[in-house]
Amino acid sequence: MSVQNLNLFTHFDNALRESRDKPLLILENGVTYDYKTIKYKSSQIAALFKSINILPGDRISVQVDKSPESLFLYLACLQGGYIYHPLNPSYTANELEFFIENAEPSIIICDVTNLAIFENLAKKNSIKHVFTLGVSGEGTLIDSLDDSAINIQTFNTPKNHIAALLYSSGTTGIPKGIMLTHENLISNTETLVKTWQFTKEDVLMHALPIFHVHGLFVAIGCALSTGASMYWLNKFDPLKVLEHIDQCSVLMGVPTFYTRLLSTEKITHDNCKNMRVFISGSAPLLEETFNDFETMTGHKILERYGMTETNMNTSNPIDGARKPGTVGPPLPGIEIQIVDDEEKKVGDNVIGNLLVRGPNVFKGYWKMPEKTAEDFTAQGFFKTGDKAKIDADGYISIVGRSKDMIITGGLNVYPKEIELIIDDIQGVKESAVIGVYHKDFGEAVIAIVICSDTSALKEIDIIEYCKQHLAGYKIPKKVIFANELPRNTMSKVQKNILRENHKNSFNL
Q1: DSSP letter string, 65-129
Q2: Tell me, what's the pLDDT at 272?
Q3: E-strand spans in 149-223?
Q4: What is the pLDDT of residue 2?
Q5: Which residues does 17 contact at the CB level (< 8 Å), separation at least 6?
Q6: Is it the case that residue 490 has pLDDT exceeding 70?
Q7: Residue 99: is its pLDDT beyond 90?
Q8: Three-state SS for 8?
């Protein structure tokens, strides 16, 4: 590790000292922020938290839209040694209740439109401080800043100090808090910068959300570790990407980004001539998309593989073959094993369970020591839950997930969570939620519902109920009513059969 103080903010600060006046953040309206300004604004927020007696290790729960100020807030948490706890802005009150109760934050920061929800949660959980922050930078957080109160020292971070707490649900529907340390994030960032050959000359098109690993740690980390600029879109819009892509050299996205860019029929060799690399992750990239994109632009998309618990584990190379359908070899310093159910290594091109070990692997699950122990082998490898195989050249292919997780538009959906909501509807006997192929989203959510004999439920009834209790990306895109669910001899629902039966539901 290249810094003595294991604080990610210090890592960024050391890298950016020579870039104090260079525009690092470029907005759609032409406004720019240099590092001097970004550091000043971040330090103001860190000083505010210190002034109200927030201590290193305290959680800061954040549910806000993407904005420059949300970036400053994230950096302030790093600088002060606070644990950054980002929440998807589309989470509903029903979903938020668990996260706030479990994380026990000292501060909540939310959009003003959700203030009543969070004030209620704060009261129930004895949380003293709730601030607001809007997409245009307005709100009580910014109003509370003191221009004179920025004399704050970056927290001297010890080994294993937690930088961020992100939640990932399991098949039981109970979310798990994933503790990522400063050391985890620094080590992975340094590896990605070298592997993807990032420099201060790069301009990253940042169109990802920043409540999960991809946009928050991978994209921002690579940029701020090198002094690269970020062209900042609050959300992905293919036409806005195309409008500014000639000013950029790198795009990181989920497969949906690339299918939507292709669907415009306006992405060409010419408007991509300044691009150095297109990177894809968070969901499997179809070989069809890989090939179509190369035909349209002359660029081979670089696919990589990671997860919340580990950040990035593998990557196709910058120089060398990028194999469609694979996520490349393991990154330097990261060990990958593919084993059978007895944890014995399998041979080339044999499907097995993917294990990973390295400085990128998370510290453990928040308040869940038994689950943490269960998900690691005796040798310290993390059990990812993914099924994979490795070829003779060392390239890894992810072939499935042992936990039936759905990835739609790059976001994780856990079937059990949706099934619990649907099963609570009067007239529903049981349900099964699956993901099937969708050209745009990669996978789309389908609910198969078994109703009672007297029920008059319709598809719209199920969907409207889900909208009241779940984030938008979790809402089933189709509801299919059936008389029974296929089961094995142990009465377990055979979702593989359901997926096969309904695989052509979205032949668009």
Answers
A1: ---HHHHHHHHHHHHHT-EEEE--TT--HHHHHHHHHHH--SEEEE-GGGHHHHHHHHHHTT--E
A2: 97
A3: 162-169, 175-181, 203-206
A4: 46
A5: none
A6: no
A7: yes
A8: helix
Whole-angstrom distance, CA of residue 417 vs CA of residue 175: 9
CB-based contact 64:70 (threshold 8 Å) = yes
Cβ contact 389:338 at 8 Å: yes
Sheet bearing 302-307, strands edge to edge: 32-34, 23-27, 229-232, 203-206, 250-253, 277-280, 302-307, 311-315
Strands 428-438 and 442-451: antiparallel
Domain ranges in the chain are 8-152+160-277, 406-501
Distance of CA 55 to the CA centre of its chain: 26
Strands 32-34 and 107-110: unpaired
Sequence-distant (≥ 6) Cβ neighbours of residue 69 within 8 angstroms: 41, 133, 137, 141, 142
Closest listed residue to residue 176, CA positions, set 87, 240, 99, 121? 99
Strands 396-401 and 382-390: antiparallel
Reduced to 3 states, what is the DSSP secondary structure of residue 33? strand
This prediction has a pTM of 0.88
Q: Percent of the chain, pLDDT > 90?
A: 82
Which residues is 31 bridged to in the sheet? none
Query: What pLDDT, on the 0 to 100 scale, is given for residue 488?
Result: 72
Which architecture characterizes domain 8-152+160-277 according to CATH?
A: 3-Layer(aba) Sandwich (3.40)
Name which of 389, 434, 8, 431 is nearest 183 in CA terms. Answer: 8
C-alpha distances in Å from residue 188, one per residue of 30, 69, 221: 31, 25, 9
* pLDDT tens by residue, 132-162: 999 999 999 999 998 766 778 999 999 899 9
| Banded model confidence at residue 170, pLDDT cuts 50, 70, 90 | very low
Residue 169 confidence (pLDDT): 58
pLDDT over 60 at 278, yes or no = yes
- The CATH homologous superfamily for domain 406-501 is ANL, C-terminal domain (3.30.300.30)
Taking CA atoms, 56 is separated from 82, 104, 161, 454, in Å, by 5, 14, 9, 57
**In whole angstroms, what is the distance from residue 220 CA to residue 167 CA?**
19
Q: Token pair for residue 318? A: 């910058």
C-alpha 323/C-alpha 301 separation (Å) is 9
**Contact predicate 414/169, CB 8 Å:** yes
Give how far the C-alpha of residue 247 lies from the chain's centroid of Cα atoms, to the nearest Å: 26
The pLDDT score that the predictor gives to residue 269 is: 97
pLDDT band (50, 70, 90) for residue 496: confident
